[in-house]
Design goal:
Protein name: Glycosyltransferase, group 2 family protein
Strand content: 5-15%
CATH architecture of the domain at 21-147 and 171-197 and 213-225: Alpha-Beta Complex
Coiled coil: 270-337
Keywords: Coiled coil
Shape: globular
Strand order of the largest sheet: 3-2-1-4-6-5-7
Helix content: 40-55%
Order of helices and strands: EHEHEHEHEHEHHEHHHHHH
Largest sheet: 7 strands, mixed
Number of strands: 7
CATH superfamily of the domain at 21-147 and 171-197 and 213-225: Spore Coat Polysaccharide Biosynthesis Protein SpsA, Chain A
Structural class: alpha/beta
Length: 350
């Protein structure tokens, strides 16, 4: 892809609109069959829409590297590294994206939650809000998590918001985000970020200090993906460090919050009901995109696309409804047998 001529904009974090978006995929371990197939679908769909894609891997076996090399294409580059941590992978990927001249970078961690429906939503919203940081927040699609894990997630989100002096984000650990490149590249290269666990959280906090606006988008996540996240106790030293650094910058941060926002970036104040309606609309759009993606994955070449879920088939649906109705009638009959004559016995006892 030829380099895109960058558009001159004001200095700092408030930039001109993006000329294009690109996708950076981070692969740090050999993927199982299901995540690998999902990654292939996402990469193929983005490549069809002429989105430049860079896949960076670290420490993979030769067999796993061959699997990734099969995805290579004219606008899809695969780069393998050895001995790179997450921070180095991000820096190398963002530098390569800067040479392409793109304005926004969608980051997908192959070990974390991602989907094509969410990626499509990220790309569409980035064209509307080019200078804002689009953060994904995980939406559980399977059995709920334990209360301890959910409480720890809330503590991490609150601690990151407290250190960043902003509660605009909903998930400090979700790696699927779309970064405005010009605003984030200097922070990524110059700041001393943690290289592994907690990298996304510290990167988010420092971008909040830099004055970036945040918008949240839902991303479907499975139980296994959420269980890989670090606990609050593991990240407690990081929050202590961020809190102490925040105290040294507190006067500057408070002044920037009061007088530092650009008028063109101020968003209208929404009521609680409007925010709830917007969130429900995002979840419905994500559900529709996921349903279409599953239907496309189940369709075979040369055949019409069939629904992925069995209950969509009219015959299967009719059988299922008949079985449910029969079970309901049997349950009602059994309940009537058990309760038959019970009120009379109670009155006699009274």
């Amino acid at each position: 892809m030829p380099p895109i001529t960058p558009v001159a904009g004001p200095s700092g974090v408030r930039q001109a609109p993006h000329a294009a978006q690109a996708c950076l995929v981070i692969v740090r371990e050999a993927l199982a069959a299901k995540p690998l197939e999902r990654l292939r679908r996402v990469v193929a769909e983005l490549h069809e829409r002429r989105v430049p894609i860079l896949i960076e891997s670290n420490g993979l076996s030769p067999e796993a590297r061959k699997v990734l090399d099969q995805m290579s294409a004219p606008d899809l580059q695969v780069v393998h590294h050895d001995g790179f941590n997450k921070l180095k992978l991000y820096r190398e990927g963002f530098r390569r994206m800067a040479k392409l001249g793109v304005r926004g970078v969608l980051v997908i961690d192959a070990s974390g939650p991602f989907s094509f429906g969410a990626a499509q939503h990220f790309m569409r919203l980035a064209r509307k809000f080019p200078s804002q940081l689009l953060c994904g927040y995980s939406v559980k699609i399977e059995t709920p998590m334990r209360r301890q894990r959910v409480t720890g997630q809330h503590l991490i989100d609150f601690s990151s918001g407290f250190c960043g002096l902003s509660l605009s984000h909903e998930d400090a650990l979700c790696p699927m985000r779309l970064y405005p490149l010009e605003a984030t590249l200097s922070v990524l290269i110059n700041a001393e970020l943690v290289p592994e666990d907690g990298f996304e959280t510290e990167f988010l906090v420092r971008l909040l200090w830099a004055g970036l606006r945040v918008r949240n988008l839902p991303v479907p996540a499975s139980r296994e993906e959420l269980m890989r996240r670090p606990s609050w106790w593991t990240m407690a030293p990081l929050f202590t460090k961020l809190f102490l650094v925040m105290l040294t910058r507190l006067p500057i941060l408070v002044c920037s919050r009061v007088v530092g926002w650009a008028p063109e970036e101020q968003s209208p104040v929404k009521t609680k009901s409007e925010r709830k309606a917007e969130k429900l609309e995002q979840l419905e759009a994500l559900a529709r995109a996921e349903k279409a993606e599953r239907a496309a994955a189940c369709a075979k070449p040369g055949q019409a696309r069939k629904p992925c879920c069995p209950h969509v088939d009219p015959e299967v649906r009719a059988k299922g409804e008949a079985a449910v109705e029969e079970a309901r009638l049997r349950a009602e009959a059994a309940r009537d047998e058990l309760t038959k004559g019970q009120p009379k016995v109670e009155k006699a006892k009274l």
